[in-house]
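Pilot study result, target chain (162 residues):
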Amino acid sequence: MGKIKLINDALLNEVSEQARQSVRRRMNYNFHTDYSDPINRMLNALEPGTYCRPHKHEDPDKREVFIVLKGKMAVLFFNETGEVTEVVPLDPEQGSYGVDIPPGVWHSLVCIESGSVAYEVKDGPYVQLVDKNFASWAPEEGSSEVGEYLNKLLMEVTRRQG
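Predicted structure:
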């Protein structure tokens, strides 16, 4: 029998601090002990300025769930040409807690508030080379276009929240 893992303020704060200090401005805390696990479960701490390149999970098809535990973030959905089709704000103070994303749907996640943490569940196993199909119409992580593109996404979130 495995060890029970408690999700509490101390753990959320610890992972958030690691995200703040990370160059990528985000940090995972895995509950699965092996990447071959058929269900990957993790905390995903995000800080403003992190960039999650738009992607989808197909071939192999994988479902993905985000449930916000703390802070504010938004999930953006795109069509095949990169236009934003929907923005789902995740903010527990506003009663918007999570989103269940089916396989093959283009999406990205942006952080609105420092200290944001989501509980993420995704079909496993995790194999880095085939885990995500990155959008060719979005800049690669670390490229010089990321800042401008991320600002565009954040402006879209603001515009749609009205």
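One observation from the pilot: The first strand starts at residue 26 and ends at 30. A full batch analysis is planned for the follow-on phase.
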